[in-house]
Amino acid sequence: MATIRGWRHRTPDTGHRTPDTGHRSPPPVFGLSREWLLHDGRPIASATVLSHPEQLARLTAACPEAAATAVLAGDPCYDRALDARPLRERFRRALGVAPGQRLILVNSTWSPRALFGDGHGTDSGGDEDRTGPGSDGPVDGDLLPSLLPRLASELPADEYRTAAVLHPNIWYGHGSGQVRAWLDGARRAGLTLIPPLDGWRQALLAADCVLGDHGSVTFYAAALGTPVLLGAFADADLDPDSPVAALGRTAPRLRPHDSLRAQLDHVMVSHEAARYAKLTEQTTSDPGRSAALLRRAFYRLVGIPEPAAPALLDRLPLPPYEPAERTAPLRVLTRLLGAGPAEIAVTRYADPAHEPVPAGPETETDAAHTVVHEDALDADRLRIADVIVRYGPRDDPRLGPPAAWAADVLARHPHCALAAYVTGAGRCTARTRAGDLVHLTGAPDPLGRPDLTDPAAYASALHAWLSGGKSLDEATAAGIVVVTGASRRRVTVERAAAAHPE
Prior knowledge:
By secondary structure, the protein is α/β, with parallel strands linked by helices. The chain contains 17 helices and 18 strands. It has helices spanning 34-37, 53-62, 76-84, 88-94, 144-154, 168-174, 176-182, 184-188, 200-206, 216-223, 243-250, 260-269, 277-281, 290-302, 402-412, 455-467, 472-478, and strands at 38-39, 42-43, 48-50, 70-72, 102-108, 160-166, 192-193, 209-212, 228-230, 330-338, 342-350, 367-373, 387-391, 418-424, 427-432, 437-442, 480-484, 487-495.
C-alpha cells in the first residue's frame, strides 16, 4: 500500500482563515485517507487489498469507514521474488556479472525528491516538466545524472557492474527516447537500463547493493536483505508510521561529495543480515500465499466458487544475456606482476574525466593505455587509441572474419598497437601491429561455464605484456593470468594462421 503523504492532492481554499494555533494536521496519506477511499461518506471499493496488518492499523486510524473492506492478501510481487531467489546466479550471469564482480543497482521512484527528481517539489507534488526551452537534459539539481558519470569514473569496470531501474512513470512521463538520451553517456560507459516493466525483479535479486530512494524497489531490496544506500529520500512526503519511512531511519545515506566507491564498499562489507529484519516482517502478511488469498477475494466478490486447481503466480523468466558493452573510451592501468605464466593486473575505467587514481587493491601500476570501441561516439578518439575493440559474431558478413576486421582496423589507424574482436563470452581474436594473430580464451569455471570477464580486458593484458618488452612466445607457451581486483582469470593465447583465423 502506498505511503506518500499529500501527493498530487490540494484541498480547496474556502476563503475562511482561522487563527494559527501552532498545531498542524498531517497531510493525508496516499491511498489510506478519506479523500482516496470515500465518496459521499461511503467506501468506494468493495475490497481494499492490503499486504500487512500494519496497513490495516493505519487504515483504521485514517479512515475507519473503510476498515471493513480491508482484505489482507500478502504481496504477489514479493512472493514472485521469493520464489526466484534460488535463481540469483542465473540472473547475475544474464547481466554478465562475473564471479568477484559486484552489481550496483541504481533505482529511482517517480517524485520530485526522488533520485531522478530535481529536488524541488511543490505543495501538490507536481509532475511539471523538468526541462526548459532549449534544454538538452535534466535541469540543475538532478542527482542521478550527476552520479552516473562518477560511478563510471570511480568504479573499475571489471570489478563493478551497474544497472538502473527507473519507475515506469519516468519512462512514460518523459518518453523512452528522452530518458535514453539523458542517460546516453552512462549507457556508453556500461550502465544497463532495465526495461520499466520486465526484468527489474531479476535485477533486484542479482544486485549486491542498491543505490536508491523511498521507492518500492529500494524497499523490496531492504526487505530481501540486500545492502541499501539512500541517494535521496523524501522524508517529508511519507507517513512516519509506514515501513518505508522506517527504511529512511535505518538505511545509510549517501554523502554526495565523498568517494562513491568507498561508501558502496563500506555498505556492502558492513551489512548485517538482521538490519532490515523488521521491514521484512512488514512486507507481507502471508509469504508465498498471495495468489491463493487474492483469488479467494476475487471469486468471493464475483460470487462464484473458486477452481479446484491451486492459484499460482507466473514465475520470473530468465532475462536474455545482456553483458555490458562499453562504447565509451576506457583508460586502462596495468602492472606486470610476474612471468611463467605471464601475470598482468588490469584496471579499466570508463571515460574518466581525469587520469584515474587507483583506490582499491590495485594501488600500483606500471603503465596506462587507452582502449576505444570502434563505434565510439567521438570518432577522433580512435586516432589516439592504443587498442581498438569491437563486439559481434565471428561470422558477421559486414565485417568479415575477425582476422580481416583486425587487419582493416590496423591499416586505417596507424597509431593503434592492437585490434581485438570480441566474439562471445570468454573469447576474442586479436591482431598486433607486428601482424601476429591470436585467439584469447578465458578458462571456464569448474562446471564448464564460460568466463564472463569482458574479453577486451584480456586484450589489454596482452597489450601491456607486449608493450612491456615481453615476447608473444612467452604468452603462448603458458598462457597469461589476468588479474582484476581480487579475481584471477587464466587465459590461453593461441596463435592463428592469418589466412584461416577461425
